[in-house]
Protein backbone atom coordinates (compact mmCIF):
# COMPACT_ATOMS: atom_id res chain seq x y z
CA UNK A 1 0.00 0.00 0.00
CA UNK A 2 1.04 3.57 -0.66
CA UNK A 3 1.33 5.99 2.23
CA UNK A 4 -0.93 9.04 2.11
CA UNK A 5 2.04 11.23 1.21
CA UNK A 6 3.10 8.87 -1.58
CA UNK A 7 -0.45 8.75 -2.94
CA UNK A 8 -0.75 12.55 -3.01
CA UNK A 9 2.63 12.79 -4.75
CA UNK A 10 1.55 10.27 -7.39
CA UNK A 11 -1.81 11.95 -7.84
CA UNK A 12 -0.49 15.49 -8.21
CA UNK A 13 2.42 14.28 -10.36
CA UNK A 14 0.00 12.85 -12.92
CA UNK A 15 -1.78 16.11 -13.68
CA UNK A 16 -2.12 18.11 -16.85
CA UNK A 17 -3.62 21.37 -15.54
CA UNK A 18 -6.28 23.16 -17.52
CA UNK A 19 -5.06 25.79 -19.94
CA UNK A 20 -8.40 27.03 -21.31
CA UNK A 21 -9.42 30.39 -19.87
CA UNK A 22 -12.38 32.72 -19.88
CA UNK A 23 -13.05 36.27 -18.77
CA UNK A 24 -15.49 36.86 -15.93
CA UNK A 25 -16.58 39.91 -13.94
CA UNK A 26 -14.83 40.24 -10.60
CA UNK A 27 -18.26 40.34 -8.97
CA UNK A 28 -18.88 36.78 -10.25
CA UNK A 29 -15.40 35.34 -9.67
CA UNK A 30 -15.81 33.74 -6.22
CA UNK A 31 -14.06 30.37 -6.16
CA UNK A 32 -12.49 30.78 -9.59
CA UNK A 33 -8.75 30.38 -10.21
CA UNK A 34 -6.89 33.35 -11.63
CA UNK A 35 -5.04 32.55 -14.87
CA UNK A 36 -2.64 35.53 -15.00
CA UNK A 37 -1.09 37.96 -12.53
CA UNK A 38 -3.10 41.13 -11.96
CA UNK A 39 -1.11 44.32 -11.37
CA UNK A 40 -2.35 47.32 -9.44
CA UNK A 41 -3.04 50.13 -11.89
CA UNK A 42 -3.41 52.74 -9.15
CA UNK A 43 -2.13 53.34 -5.65
CA UNK A 44 -4.46 52.22 -2.87
CA UNK A 45 -5.36 54.61 -1.41
CA UNK A 46 -4.65 57.03 -4.27
CA UNK A 47 -3.84 59.89 -1.87
CA UNK A 48 -3.27 60.44 1.85
CA UNK A 49 -6.64 60.41 3.58
CA UNK A 50 -8.11 60.62 7.05
CA UNK A 51 -8.78 57.50 9.10
CA UNK A 52 -11.08 59.43 11.46
CA UNK A 53 -13.57 62.24 11.71
CA UNK A 54 -11.56 65.14 13.07
CA UNK A 55 -9.22 67.98 12.09
CA UNK A 56 -6.26 67.93 9.70
CA UNK A 57 -3.28 70.17 10.40
CA UNK A 58 0.48 70.63 10.08
CA UNK A 59 2.00 69.30 13.27
CA UNK A 60 4.96 71.72 13.31
CA UNK A 61 2.69 74.73 12.78
CA UNK A 62 0.30 73.57 15.49
CA UNK A 63 3.11 73.06 17.98
CA UNK A 64 4.40 76.60 17.26
CA UNK A 65 0.90 78.02 17.87
CA UNK A 66 0.28 76.14 21.12
CA UNK A 67 -2.10 73.72 19.37
CA UNK A 68 -4.74 76.41 18.85
CA UNK A 69 -5.44 77.14 15.17
CA UNK A 70 -8.18 78.77 13.10
CA UNK A 71 -10.55 76.65 10.99
CA UNK A 72 -9.99 77.26 7.27
CA UNK A 73 -12.00 74.65 5.32
CA UNK A 74 -14.28 71.62 5.52
CA UNK A 75 -13.38 68.40 3.65
CA UNK A 76 -15.80 65.53 3.06
CA UNK A 77 -14.94 62.19 1.49
CA UNK A 78 -15.02 62.40 -2.30
CA UNK A 79 -14.19 66.10 -2.53
CA UNK A 80 -10.93 67.66 -3.69
CA UNK A 81 -9.44 69.78 -0.87
CA UNK A 82 -7.75 73.13 -1.25
CA UNK A 83 -4.16 73.45 0.02
CA UNK A 84 -4.19 73.99 3.78
CA UNK A 85 -4.05 77.65 4.69
CA UNK A 86 -0.94 78.55 6.69
CA UNK A 87 -1.25 77.90 10.43
CA UNK A 88 -4.80 76.58 10.23
CA UNK A 89 -6.80 73.37 10.58
CA UNK A 90 -9.29 71.75 8.22
CA UNK A 91 -12.43 69.96 9.38
CA UNK A 92 -12.15 66.51 7.79
CA UNK A 93 -14.24 63.36 7.74
CA UNK A 94 -13.25 59.71 7.48
CA UNK A 95 -11.95 58.98 3.99
CA UNK A 96 -11.48 62.63 3.18
CA UNK A 97 -8.32 63.47 1.23
CA UNK A 98 -5.69 65.34 3.24
CA UNK A 99 -4.98 68.82 1.92
CA UNK A 100 -1.41 69.55 0.92
CA UNK A 101 0.40 71.06 3.87
CA UNK A 102 -1.32 68.79 6.44
CA UNK A 103 0.42 65.76 7.95
CA UNK A 104 -1.67 64.84 11.00
CA UNK A 105 -5.33 64.30 11.92
CA UNK A 106 -6.65 64.77 15.43
CA UNK A 107 -9.83 62.86 16.27
CA UNK A 108 -12.74 65.17 16.98
CA UNK A 109 -12.85 63.73 20.52
CA UNK A 110 -9.38 65.25 21.08
CA UNK A 111 -10.35 68.73 19.87
CA UNK A 112 -12.34 71.60 21.38
CA UNK A 113 -14.07 74.03 18.99
CA UNK A 114 -13.85 77.69 20.04
CA UNK A 115 -15.91 79.78 17.63
CA UNK A 116 -13.64 79.78 14.52
CA UNK A 117 -10.66 78.33 16.39
CA UNK A 118 -9.90 74.73 17.30
CA UNK A 119 -7.96 73.70 20.38
CA UNK A 120 -6.10 70.39 19.78
CA UNK A 121 -4.96 68.03 22.50
CA UNK A 122 -1.13 68.39 22.45
CA UNK A 123 -0.81 64.66 23.20
CA UNK A 124 -1.88 63.84 19.63
CA UNK A 125 1.08 62.18 17.90
CA UNK A 126 2.65 63.61 14.75
CA UNK A 127 1.24 61.77 11.71
CA UNK A 128 -1.68 60.27 13.66
CA UNK A 129 -4.81 58.96 11.91
CA UNK A 130 -3.50 59.33 8.37
CA UNK A 131 -3.80 56.56 5.78
CA UNK A 132 -0.80 57.13 3.56
CA UNK A 133 -0.95 57.05 -0.22
CA UNK A 134 -0.23 53.51 -1.44
CA UNK A 135 -0.15 52.00 2.06
CA UNK A 136 -2.21 49.04 0.81
CA UNK A 137 -0.98 48.68 -2.79
CA UNK A 138 1.56 50.53 -4.90
CA UNK A 139 0.76 51.04 -8.59
CA UNK A 140 2.63 48.44 -10.63
CA UNK A 141 2.85 45.78 -7.93
CA UNK A 142 1.28 42.34 -8.31
CA UNK A 143 -2.04 42.63 -6.52
CA UNK A 144 -3.14 39.00 -7.02
CA UNK A 145 -0.93 36.23 -8.39
CA UNK A 146 -1.88 33.68 -11.03
CA UNK A 147 -3.17 30.35 -9.67
CA UNK A 148 -4.83 32.10 -6.73
CA UNK A 149 -8.30 30.82 -5.88
CA UNK A 150 -10.45 33.93 -5.60
CA UNK A 151 -12.07 34.57 -2.23
CA UNK A 152 -14.23 37.49 -1.10
CA UNK A 153 -11.14 39.44 0.00
CA UNK A 154 -9.50 39.10 -3.42
CA UNK A 155 -12.73 40.25 -5.02
CA UNK A 156 -12.63 43.34 -2.84
CA UNK A 157 -8.96 44.05 -3.52
CA UNK A 158 -9.33 43.65 -7.28
CA UNK A 159 -12.23 46.04 -7.18
CA UNK A 160 -10.17 48.51 -5.14
CA UNK A 161 -7.69 48.86 -8.01
CA UNK A 162 -10.42 49.35 -10.58
CA UNK A 163 -10.36 45.88 -12.15
CA UNK A 164 -13.77 44.93 -13.51
CA UNK A 165 -12.98 41.67 -15.33
CA UNK A 166 -10.33 38.98 -14.84
CA UNK A 167 -9.00 35.99 -16.77
CA UNK A 168 -9.68 32.70 -14.98
CA UNK A 169 -9.31 29.04 -15.88
CA UNK A 170 -12.55 27.50 -17.01
CA UNK A 171 -14.22 25.37 -14.37
CA UNK A 172 -12.92 21.80 -14.13
CA UNK A 173 -15.67 19.35 -15.06
CA UNK A 174 -15.83 16.43 -12.62
CA UNK A 175 -18.07 13.49 -13.48
CA UNK A 176 -19.51 11.78 -10.41
CA UNK A 177 -21.33 8.46 -10.09
CA UNK A 178 -21.94 5.77 -7.47
CA UNK A 179 -22.10 2.02 -7.82
CA UNK A 180 -24.40 -0.41 -6.02
CA UNK A 181 -27.59 -2.41 -6.61
CA UNK A 182 -28.77 -1.32 -3.16
CA UNK A 183 -28.83 2.41 -3.93
CA UNK A 184 -32.06 4.33 -4.47
CA UNK A 185 -32.70 8.03 -4.84
CA UNK A 186 -33.91 10.09 -1.87
CA UNK A 187 -37.69 10.55 -1.92
CA UNK A 188 -38.40 6.98 -3.05
CA UNK A 189 -39.76 4.54 -0.40
CA UNK A 190 -37.11 2.04 0.67
CA UNK A 191 -37.62 -1.66 0.13
CA UNK A 192 -35.82 -4.46 1.96
CA UNK A 193 -32.06 -4.36 1.36
CA UNK A 194 -32.03 -0.84 -0.06
CA UNK A 195 -30.36 2.34 1.17
CA UNK A 196 -30.52 5.93 0.00
CA UNK A 197 -27.65 7.10 -2.16
CA UNK A 198 -25.65 9.79 -0.33
CA UNK A 199 -22.13 9.77 -1.74
CA UNK A 200 -23.00 11.56 -4.97
CA UNK A 201 -24.54 14.42 -3.03
CA UNK A 202 -21.43 14.65 -0.84
CA UNK A 203 -19.09 14.61 -3.83
CA UNK A 204 -21.12 17.02 -5.96
CA UNK A 205 -21.32 19.39 -2.99
CA UNK A 206 -17.57 19.27 -2.41
CA UNK A 207 -16.79 19.74 -6.10
CA UNK A 208 -19.13 22.73 -6.29
CA UNK A 209 -17.74 24.22 -3.06
CA UNK A 210 -14.24 23.93 -4.54
CA UNK A 211 -15.30 26.10 -7.51
CA UNK A 212 -15.59 23.27 -10.03
CA UNK A 213 -18.48 21.90 -12.08
CA UNK A 214 -19.92 18.52 -11.06
CA UNK A 215 -21.48 16.31 -13.72
CA UNK A 216 -23.86 13.99 -11.86
CA UNK A 217 -24.21 10.70 -13.73
CA UNK A 218 -26.34 8.96 -11.13
CA UNK A 219 -26.03 5.38 -9.86
CA UNK A 220 -24.89 2.32 -11.77
CA UNK A 221 -25.76 -1.28 -11.01
CA UNK A 222 -23.16 -3.76 -9.79
CA UNK A 223 -22.54 -5.21 -13.25
CA UNK A 224 -19.35 -5.32 -15.28
CA UNK A 225 -20.84 -4.12 -18.59
CA UNK A 226 -22.84 -1.31 -16.99
CA UNK A 227 -19.74 -0.13 -15.12
CA UNK A 228 -17.64 -0.09 -18.30
CA UNK A 229 -20.33 1.86 -20.13
CA UNK A 230 -20.68 4.55 -17.47
CA UNK A 231 -16.90 4.93 -17.27
CA UNK A 232 -16.71 5.62 -20.99
CA UNK A 233 -19.65 8.03 -20.78
CA UNK A 234 -18.06 9.84 -17.83
CA UNK A 235 -14.73 10.17 -19.64
CA UNK A 236 -16.46 11.68 -22.66
CA UNK A 237 -18.21 14.37 -20.59
CA UNK A 238 -15.65 15.51 -18.04
CA UNK A 239 -12.02 16.36 -17.29
CA UNK A 240 -11.88 14.03 -14.27
CA UNK A 241 -14.01 11.09 -13.16
CA UNK A 242 -14.75 10.33 -9.50
CA UNK A 243 -16.82 7.34 -8.48
CA UNK A 244 -17.71 5.81 -5.14
CA UNK A 245 -17.98 2.12 -4.38
CA UNK A 246 -16.93 -0.95 -6.31
CA UNK A 247 -13.16 -0.58 -5.84
CA UNK A 248 -12.62 -3.29 -3.23
CA UNK A 249 -12.08 -7.03 -3.81
CA UNK A 250 -15.62 -8.40 -3.53
CA UNK A 251 -17.31 -10.36 -6.29
CA UNK A 252 -19.64 -7.42 -6.95
CA UNK A 253 -16.85 -4.81 -7.04
CA UNK A 254 -16.43 -4.14 -10.76
CA UNK A 255 -14.75 -0.73 -10.98
CA UNK A 256 -11.11 -1.85 -11.01
CA UNK A 257 -11.71 -4.49 -13.67
CA UNK A 258 -13.81 -2.11 -15.74
CA UNK A 259 -11.17 0.60 -15.61
CA UNK A 260 -8.52 -1.92 -16.62
CA UNK A 261 -10.71 -2.92 -19.59
CA UNK A 262 -11.20 0.63 -20.93
CA UNK A 263 -8.11 2.32 -19.49
CA UNK A 264 -5.55 1.52 -16.82
CA UNK A 265 -5.13 1.41 -13.04
CA UNK A 266 -2.01 3.10 -11.60
CA UNK A 267 -2.63 2.18 -7.96
CA UNK A 268 -5.58 1.06 -5.87
CA UNK A 269 -4.70 0.82 -2.18
CA UNK A 270 -3.62 3.56 0.23
CA UNK A 271 -2.69 3.20 3.90
CA UNK A 272 -5.40 5.59 5.08
CA UNK A 273 -8.23 5.02 7.54
CA UNK A 274 -10.99 5.19 6.60
CA UNK A 275 -10.62 4.54 2.88
CA UNK A 276 -7.96 1.93 2.09
CA UNK A 277 -9.53 0.70 -1.18
CA UNK A 278 -8.91 3.74 -3.39
CA UNK A 279 -8.14 3.46 -7.09
CA UNK A 280 -6.39 5.90 -9.37
CA UNK A 281 -6.01 5.48 -13.10
CA UNK A 282 -7.43 6.76 -16.34
CA UNK A 283 -10.20 5.98 -18.79
CA UNK A 284 -9.36 6.87 -22.39
CA UNK A 285 -6.92 9.47 -21.21
CA UNK A 286 -9.21 11.00 -18.56
CA UNK A 287 -8.03 10.67 -14.93
CA UNK A 288 -10.19 8.58 -12.63
CA UNK A 289 -10.31 8.41 -8.84
CA UNK A 290 -12.30 5.51 -7.43
CA UNK A 291 -13.29 6.13 -3.82
CA UNK A 292 -14.63 3.61 -1.30
CA UNK A 293 -18.35 3.16 -0.81
CA UNK A 294 -18.79 4.00 2.87
CA UNK A 295 -19.99 7.60 3.30
CA UNK A 296 -17.45 8.76 5.93
CA UNK A 297 -14.67 7.15 3.85
CA UNK A 298 -15.86 9.12 0.82
CA UNK A 299 -15.76 12.39 2.75
CA UNK A 300 -12.29 11.72 4.18
CA UNK A 301 -10.64 10.48 0.99
CA UNK A 302 -12.24 13.22 -1.10
CA UNK A 303 -10.87 15.92 1.21
CA UNK A 304 -7.44 14.38 1.83
CA UNK A 305 -6.61 12.71 -1.49
CA UNK A 306 -8.97 13.88 -4.25
CA UNK A 307 -8.89 17.57 -3.26
CA UNK A 308 -5.14 18.14 -3.93
CA UNK A 309 -5.49 16.42 -7.30
CA UNK A 310 -8.55 18.40 -8.35
CA UNK A 311 -7.12 21.73 -7.22
CA UNK A 312 -3.90 21.14 -9.12
CA UNK A 313 -5.87 20.08 -12.21
CA UNK A 314 -7.86 23.31 -11.90
CA UNK A 315 -4.58 25.25 -11.88
CA UNK A 316 -4.77 26.22 -8.21
CA UNK A 317 -1.70 26.30 -5.99
CA UNK A 318 -3.20 25.50 -2.57
CA UNK A 319 -4.94 22.15 -2.83
CA UNK A 320 -3.86 20.50 0.41
CA UNK A 321 -5.64 21.30 3.64
CA UNK A 322 -3.75 23.54 6.07
CA UNK A 323 -2.37 21.90 9.23
CA UNK A 324 -1.92 23.26 12.73
CA UNK A 325 -1.53 21.88 16.23
CA UNK A 326 -4.16 21.58 18.96
CA UNK A 327 -4.32 19.93 22.36
CA UNK A 328 -5.97 16.50 22.36
CA UNK A 329 -8.99 16.12 24.64
CA UNK A 330 -8.88 12.36 24.09
CA UNK A 331 -6.63 9.32 24.19
CA UNK A 332 -6.37 6.83 21.33
CA UNK A 333 -4.21 3.84 20.52
CA UNK A 334 -2.12 3.78 17.36
CA UNK A 335 -3.29 2.33 14.05
CA UNK A 336 -1.41 0.50 11.32
CA UNK A 337 -2.70 3.06 8.83
CA UNK A 338 -2.69 6.86 8.95
CA UNK A 339 -6.07 7.77 10.42
CA UNK A 340 -8.12 10.90 9.74
CA UNK A 341 -10.48 11.29 12.67
CA UNK A 342 -13.58 13.45 12.52
CA UNK A 343 -13.27 15.99 15.30
CA UNK A 344 -14.09 19.52 16.36
CA UNK A 345 -12.29 22.33 18.12
CA UNK A 346 -13.30 23.25 21.65
CA UNK A 347 -13.69 26.69 23.21
CA UNK A 348 -10.65 25.98 25.40
CA UNK A 349 -8.28 25.52 22.46
CA UNK A 350 -8.44 21.72 22.38
CA UNK A 351 -9.85 19.22 19.92
CA UNK A 352 -12.36 16.47 20.69
CA UNK A 353 -13.33 13.37 18.70
CA UNK A 354 -16.74 12.18 17.60
CA UNK A 355 -17.35 9.03 19.66
CA UNK A 356 -18.00 6.74 16.67
CA UNK A 357 -15.28 6.83 14.01
CA UNK A 358 -16.85 4.11 11.84
CA UNK A 359 -16.45 4.58 8.09
CA UNK A 360 -20.23 4.36 7.75
CA UNK A 361 -21.03 7.20 10.17
CA UNK A 362 -21.37 10.36 8.08
CA UNK A 363 -22.85 12.22 11.06
CA UNK A 364 -19.29 12.33 12.42
CA UNK A 365 -18.34 14.69 9.58
CA UNK A 366 -21.44 16.83 10.12
CA UNK A 367 -20.70 17.10 13.86
CA UNK A 368 -17.08 18.03 13.32
CA UNK A 369 -15.18 20.86 11.67
CA UNK A 370 -11.66 19.39 11.49
CA UNK A 371 -9.73 16.18 10.95
CA UNK A 372 -7.21 14.95 13.48
CA UNK A 373 -4.37 13.21 11.67
CA UNK A 374 -3.09 10.22 13.63
CA UNK A 375 0.05 8.96 11.96
CA UNK A 376 0.64 5.25 11.52
CA UNK A 377 1.73 3.69 14.81
CA UNK A 378 1.22 6.91 16.77
CA UNK A 379 -0.62 6.69 20.10
CA UNK A 380 -2.28 9.85 21.39
CA UNK A 381 -2.62 10.80 25.05
CA UNK A 382 -4.75 13.52 26.60
CA UNK A 383 -3.05 16.96 26.24
CA UNK A 384 -0.72 15.79 23.46
CA UNK A 385 -0.35 18.27 20.61
CA UNK A 386 -1.89 16.67 17.53
CA UNK A 387 -2.10 17.56 13.84
CA UNK A 388 -5.40 19.26 12.97
CA UNK A 389 -6.69 19.91 9.44
CA UNK A 390 -9.79 22.10 9.00
CA UNK A 391 -12.33 20.75 6.52
CA UNK A 392 -11.81 23.83 4.35
Description of the structure:
This protein has 392 residues and is α/β, with parallel strands linked by helices. The chain has four domains: 4-18 and 171-314, MoaB/Mog-like domain (Molybdenum Cofactor Biosythetic Enzyme, Chain A), CATH 3.40.980; 21-44 and 135-169, Alpha-Beta Complex (Molybdopterin biosynthesis moea protein, domain 2), CATH 3.90.105.10; 49-131, Molybdopterin biosynthesis moea protein, domain 3 (Molybdopterin biosynthesis moeA protein, domain 3), CATH 2.170.190; 324-390, Beta-clip, CATH 2.40.340.10. It is built from eight helices and 26 strands. The relative contact order is 0.13. The mean pLDDT is 94.
How are strands sequenced across the largest beta sheet? 7-4-6-5-9-8
Instruction: Tell me how many strands there are.
Output: 26
Strand content: 25-35%
Q: What's the architecture of the largest domain in CATH terms?
A: 3-Layer(aba) Sandwich
pLDDT averaged over residues: 94
- Supply the CATH superfamily name of the largest domain: MoaB/Mog-like domain
Unreliable runs? none
**Helix fraction by DSSP (H/I, runs of at least 4):** 10-25%
Q: Tell me the quaternary state.
A: single chain
Largest sheet properties: 6 strands, mixed
Rg on CA atoms, Å: 29 Å
Structure annotation, total helices: 8
Overall SS class: alpha/beta
Q: Quickly name the level 1 CATH class of the largest domain.
A: Alpha Beta
Q: How is the CATH topology of the largest domain named?
A: Molybdenum Cofactor Biosythetic Enzyme, Chain A
- Structural domains: how many: 4
Molecular shape: elongated
Amino acid sequence: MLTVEEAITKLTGAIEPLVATETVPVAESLGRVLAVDVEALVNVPPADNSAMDGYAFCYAAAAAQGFELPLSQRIVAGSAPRPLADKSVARIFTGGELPSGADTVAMQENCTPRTDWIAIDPEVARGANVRRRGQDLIAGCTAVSARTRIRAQEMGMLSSIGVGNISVYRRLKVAVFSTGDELVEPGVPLEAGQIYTANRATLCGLVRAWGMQPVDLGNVADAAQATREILVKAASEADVVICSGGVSVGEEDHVRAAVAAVGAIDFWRVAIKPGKPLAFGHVRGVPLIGLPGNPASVFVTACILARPFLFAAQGCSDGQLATFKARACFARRGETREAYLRARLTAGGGVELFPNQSSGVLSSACWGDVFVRQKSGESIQVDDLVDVLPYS
